[in-house]
């Protein structure tokens, strides 16, 4: 076996410590900089990022984890699997972006959730006519770049099994794994070239194997790695899994000649000792959580590592997954209180933990005793901090949970609501946000820097609300929204106002492409010191006689898009957030708001990867939503909104939410979701999105009308609502106005046919 290593991470963030890549890429798209300038920014970020990892002390550094958009798209390029429709774009970089974002004439690849994270990947399309062909230029050039900087580089590539399992079969019902034998020669070629280029290790990522897999799939994976590991010209293979346990896939894969296994010992609990073949392999132990931001318990991590040493010869320390999912460094946060800061570890700090643990393993714990002492001290102040145990929050929650959290039967509620609202059939509405123009973001940036004061900021946002209300009246929509201009993000906005959360200033994490989020840190018991949305909503309502929807984010989504406590069950945190949202619904109702939407777009996202864990999750998540929404009168309509999902596995839970109206992404799944909903006896209001807001295209009156007629086959007219499939914040104002004009016209057309 080649030289081994002792410390690494499975991948690192790439957007830039200050989102340099986002800015450069968006500038390139806008035509403000050229491709050379964009490449220069990318190269500097890569070289600095790798040098940082080396200087922090890692003795194996992942490369090819950089991406201009997404690692699955990069793998599609590597394997020659871009769809035919982008072939007409001559320039490779522009072709790549065309596949990612589409053009005026080319539809982009679909985007979907990367396992149970808030990262989204592009779904490669593989059809019977796809002819795979290797294009290793990206990984080879990133490897060469790193080696020339003297970095112990380990190329990272998504493995063939995960690539196929996560891709979409087009024009065939044949499972894509049947294409494995076409891919293996390409991977073999790639491994040969990487070895020749100087790589001693290659990391092949196979996270798809931590989900429920059939025996056939596991056998296909085993056979694939048997074949790859039988090659003579190749680097040592590190087969990396993360986000859970490999279970029965682990012994199967360990029976091959693959040299190393990276296992997630935070989200997973594979028993390494029970797989005898691992004794002679490198085990890369993911003991530092790559997905959350808490400082590691070094003592417990070291004891896990010590136990492993009893059963394996060679051991390396790592993060549980790529650091893509956490911010770069805590150093970029000026405003964290001292106690909270001592409990946290972002990307750089996690790399240091990995190095500390590796040093403890190789040179004894005494050599890094100071680090261990600091970690111990932090754990003890965290445990004792009063913010984590607020008796009044806990008492109130227990009391509310002891009273009933159900509402009257839906039919009774509908009667009470209809009387108050008197809406036409097929009521039209939108999901909440209107375009977040740069004018809005610049105002918020100016408030941050002190260039304008709070009063001026509120004036400007109110002017935006007034414009959005006027537009909706002009378009003749039935249920209006205030447009959410005051919200930087639908989760962060609430976290900033709730006790128990810390909102970072610079903790950016990539969500997809150039879009980033700053997940708030939920560290303590949650309470709502004051009203959060009532002033904005009542202001909007004061401008119109039509109903304005209150607009809140639900507890499950707030948790899904935050870094959450690891010292209590997620269900307990969900209920605390739910109680705060419930307080807000009650205040909105008291202020005269008759419809309150509580968004849960991430309901599907937190669904556990293994089926056996899903029931318990659905129980507590539905429970938290009902806790949040059952404090209001029967005459107050509760709406919810879901998106970004394949709803299959949660369809029963959607009925369980018991919302009076559910708007749901459906423009791309052609109303299938309506049939699924009827199959679980769903008999509440529903607004299947009638156009796809993820594209700038303006839908015609005819196509919207046609999809409404379709929907009416599955849903009686009394229950059908008309709306886009998500909020409009990422769209431009011109296309939004045109699209909504057509939406209202289509609704009127179909109403006239009733
Ligand atoms: N948390 C979260 N997760 C989610 C979604 C979501 O909406 N929120 N939607 C889904 C898809 N993911 C998305 C994630 C991000 C964005 C998005 O638009 N992000 C914005 C940032 C939003 C934000 O936080 N805006 C802040 C900060 C904006 C900013 O960058 N300001 C400039 C200055 C102003 C300017 O020059 O524009 C700066 O700080 O430098 C604000 O409005 O205040 C972006 O990357 O551009 C969209 C969808 C799933 N997951
Ligand atoms: Zn949505």
UniProtKB/TrEMBL annotation:
Binding residue positions for Zn(2+) 1: 641, 643, 665, 726
What SUPFAM superfamilies does the annotation carry? UROD/MetE-like (SSF51726)
Q: Which reaction does it catalyse?
A: 5-methyltetrahydropteroyltri-L-glutamate + L-homocysteine = tetrahydropteroyltri-L-glutamate + L-methionine
Q: In which pathway does it act?
A: Amino-acid biosynthesis; L-methionine biosynthesis via de novo pathway; L-methionine from L-homocysteine (MetE route): step 1/1
Active-site annotation = 694
InterPro entries with a match to the protein in the record: Cbl-indep_Met_Synth_N (IPR013215), Cobalamin-indep_Met_synthase (IPR006276), Met_Synth_C/arc (IPR002629), UROD/MetE-like_sf (IPR038071)
Binding sites annotated in the UniProt record for L-methionine = 431-433, 484, 599
| Annotated Cobalamin-independent methionine synthase MetE N-terminal domain residues | 7-309
The UniProt GO MF terms for this protein read:
5-methyltetrahydropteroyltriglutamate-homocysteine S-methyltransferase activity; zinc ion binding
Broad class of enzyme this protein falls into: transferase
Which keywords annotate this record?
Amino-acid biosynthesis, Metal-binding, Methionine biosynthesis, Methyltransferase, Repeat, Transferase, Zinc
Quote the record's binding site residues for L-homocysteine: 431-433, 484, 599
According to its UniProt record, the EC number is 2.1.1.14
Summarize where Zn(2+) binds, as residue positions.
Answer: 641, 643, 665, 726
Task: List residues of the Cobalamin-independent methionine synthase MetE C-terminal/archaeal domain.
Answer: 426-748
How are cofactors bound according to the entry's free-text note?
Binds 2 Zn(2+) ions per subunit. Binds 1 zinc ion per subunit.
Key word Transit peptide present: no
Enumerate the HAMAP family for this protein. Meth_synth
What is the protein's known function?
Catalyzes the transfer of a methyl group from 5-methyltetrahydrofolate to homocysteine resulting in methionine formation.
PANTHER family, per the entry: 5-METHYLTETRAHYDROPTEROYLTRIGLUTAMATE--HOMOCYSTEINE METHYLTRANSFERASE
In the record, the note on similarity to other proteins reads: Belongs to the vitamin-B12 independent methionine synthase family.
Protein name, UniProt field: 5-methyltetrahydropteroyltriglutamate--homocysteine methyltransferase
| Phylogenetic placement of the source organism | Bacteria, Bacillati, Actinomycetota, Actinomycetes, Mycobacteriales
């Amino acid at each position: 076996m080649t030289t081994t290593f002792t410390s690494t991470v499975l991948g690192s963030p790439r957007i830039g410590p200050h989102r340099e890549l986002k800015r450069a890429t968006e500038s390139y798209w806008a035509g403000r900089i050229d491709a050379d300038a964009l490449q220069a920014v990318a190269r500097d970020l890569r070289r600095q990022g790798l040098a940082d990892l080396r200087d922090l002390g890692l003795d194996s550094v992942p490369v090819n984890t950089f991406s201009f958009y997404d690692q699955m798209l990069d793998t599609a390029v590597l394997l020659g699997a871009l769809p035919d429709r982008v072939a007409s774009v001559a320039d490779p970089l522009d072709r790549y972006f065309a596949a990612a974002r589409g053009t005026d004439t080319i539809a982009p690849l679909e985007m979907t959730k990367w396992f149970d994270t808030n990262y989204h990947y592009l779904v490669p399309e593989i059809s019977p006519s796809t002819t795979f062909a290797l294009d290793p230029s990206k990984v080879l050039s990133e490897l060469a770049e790193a080696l020339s900087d003297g970095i112990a580089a380990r190329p990272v590539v998504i493995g063939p099994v995960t690539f196929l399992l996560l891709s979409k079969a087009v024009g065939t019902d044949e499972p894509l794994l049947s294409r494995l034998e076409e891919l293996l020669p390409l991977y073999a070629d790639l491994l040969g070239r990487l070895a020749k280029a100087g790589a001693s290790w290659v990391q092949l990522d196979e996270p798809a194997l931590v989900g429920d897999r059939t025996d056939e799939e596991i056998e296909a994976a085993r056979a694939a790695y048997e074949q790859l590991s039988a090659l003579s010209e190749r680097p040592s293979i590190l087969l990396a899994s993360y986000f859970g346990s490999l279970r029965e896939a682990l012994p199967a894969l360990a029976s091959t000649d693959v040299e190393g296994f990276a296992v997630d010992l935070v989200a997973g609990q594979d028993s390494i000792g029970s797989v005898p073949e691992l004794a002679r392999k490198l085990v890369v132990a993911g003991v530092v959580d790559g997905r959350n931001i808490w400082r590691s318990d070094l003592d417990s991590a070291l004891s896990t590592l010590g136990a492993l040493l009893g059963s394996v010869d060679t051991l390396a320390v790592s993060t549980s997954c790529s650091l893509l999912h956490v911010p770069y460094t805590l150093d970029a946060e000026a405003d964290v209180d001292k106690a909270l800061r001592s409990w946290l570890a972002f990307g750089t700090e996690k790399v240091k933990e990995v190095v500390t643990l590796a040093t403890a393993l190789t040179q004894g714990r005494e050599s890094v005793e100071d680090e261990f002492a600091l970690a111990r001290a932090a754990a003890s102040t965290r445990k004792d901090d009063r913010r984590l145990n607020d008796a009044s929050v806990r008492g109130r929650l227990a009391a509310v949970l002891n009273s009933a959290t159900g509402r009257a039967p839906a039919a009774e509620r509908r009667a009470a609501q209809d009387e108050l609202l008197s809406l036409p059939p097929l009521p039209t509405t939108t999901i909440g946000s209107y375009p977040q123009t740069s004018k809005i973001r610049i105002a918020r940036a100016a408030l941050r820097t002190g260039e304008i004061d709070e009063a001026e900021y509120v004036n400007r946002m109110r002017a935006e609300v007034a414009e959005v209300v006027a537009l909706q009246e002009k378009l003749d929509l039935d249920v209006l929204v205030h447009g959410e201009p005051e919200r930087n993000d639908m989760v962060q906005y609430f976290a900033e106002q709730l006790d128990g959360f810390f909102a970072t200033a610079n903790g950016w994490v990539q969500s997809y492409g150039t879009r980033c989020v700053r997940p708030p840190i939920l560290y303590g018991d949650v309470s709502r010191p004051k009203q959060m949305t009532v002033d904005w909503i009542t202001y909007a309502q004061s401008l119109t006689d039509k109903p304005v929807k209150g607009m809140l984010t639900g507890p499950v989504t707030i948790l899904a898009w935050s870094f959450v406590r690891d010292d209590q069950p997620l269900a307990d945190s969900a209920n605390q957030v739910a109680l705060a949202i419930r307080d807000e619904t009650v205040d909105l109702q008291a202020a005269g708001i008759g419809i309150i939407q509580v968004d849960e777009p991430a309901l599907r996202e937190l669904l556990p990867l293994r089926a056996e864990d899903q029931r318990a999750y659905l129980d507590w998540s539905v429970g938290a939503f009902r806790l949040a929404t059952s404090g209001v009168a029967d005459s107050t309509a509760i709406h919810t909104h879901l998106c970004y999902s394949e709803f299959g596995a949660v369809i029963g839970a959607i009925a369980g939410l018991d919302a009076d109206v559910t708007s749901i992404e459906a423009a791309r799944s052609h109303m299938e979701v309506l049939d699924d909903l009827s199959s679980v006896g769903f008999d509440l209001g529903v607004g299947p999105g009638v156009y796809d807001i993820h594209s700038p295209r303006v839908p015609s009156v005819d196509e919207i009308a046609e999809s409404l007629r379709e929907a009416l086959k599955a849903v009686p007219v009394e229950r059908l609502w008309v709306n886009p499939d998500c909020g409009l914040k990422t769209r431009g104002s011109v296309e939004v106005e045109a699209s909504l004009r057509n939406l209202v016209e289509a609704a009127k057309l179909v109403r006239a046919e009733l």
